[in-house]
Amino acid sequence: MEYNGGVPPVGPTPWLTAQFDDHDTPGSVTLTLTGTNLSGTEFLRSGYFNLDPALNPGNLTFSTPTQTGMFDTPTISLGSNAFKADGDGFFDILLEFSTSDGPEKRFTSGDSVSYAVGGIAGLTASAFNFISAPDGAGRGLYPTAAHVQNTGVEGTGSAWVTVPEPGTLSLLALGGLALIRRGK
């Protein structure tokens, strides 16, 4: 869902999916982010995620990414409630994607990036299933946020998208930025 009054992406939801999978083995989690239904010139500028508030996001480590697509590797920033998604909530993990290197370097439909995330003993997928810290804007608290640019039929808008509650597989069909699936 688009939550900030912007122009939603043109394609059907979900526009993006994010999956955290611990493969039933605590200690390492695979994060996979995929552009599923972005259309035309729409691209992901940034993705925001949360971590269990009892854990220090600064201790997380990210492997060299596995990528599908020609986009530039995103920059990863970590900090407890350090990153504000436009208008609502503070997040612990920020992935920033290229916006200026031309369309061929942007994260678009069909692109995918995966990381092995570790650095915290006993880390599981459920450690990422937390809502953002409140910022007082009052629109809602979200488990994820993403900033999508060049949205709408004309490709001139932008949108802030999310799933308004912790994800399950059924939410993948409901749209927005689909979130957490614990490994089977």
Explained architecture:
By secondary structure, the protein is mainly beta. The chain has a single domain (16-178), classed as Immunoglobulin-like (Sandwich). It contains one helix and eleven strands; from the N terminus they run E-E-E-E-E-E-E-E-E-E-H-E. The chain has one helix at 169-174, and strands at residues 16-21, 29-35, 43-49, 61-62, 66-68, 75-84, 90-96, 112-118, 144-151, 157-161, 177-178. The strands form two sheets. Strands 1, 2, 4, 5, 8 and 11 form a six-stranded mixed β-sheet that branches.
**Low-pLDDT sequence parts:** 164-184
Count the domains: 1
Write down the Rg. Answer: 15 Å
Shape: globular
Quick structural gist:
This protein is mainly beta and 184 residues long.
Structure characteristics:
single chain; 184 residues; mainly beta; Immunoglobulin-like; six-stranded mixed β-sheet; disordered C terminus
Helices and strands in order, then pairings?
Elements: E1 16-21, E2 29-35, E3 43-49, E4 61-62, E5 66-68, E6 75-84, E7 90-96, E8 112-118, E9 144-151, E10 157-161, H1 169-174, E11 177-178
Parallel strand pairs: 1-11
Antiparallel strand pairs: 1-2, 2-8, 3-7, 3-9, 4-8, 5-8, 6-7, 9-10
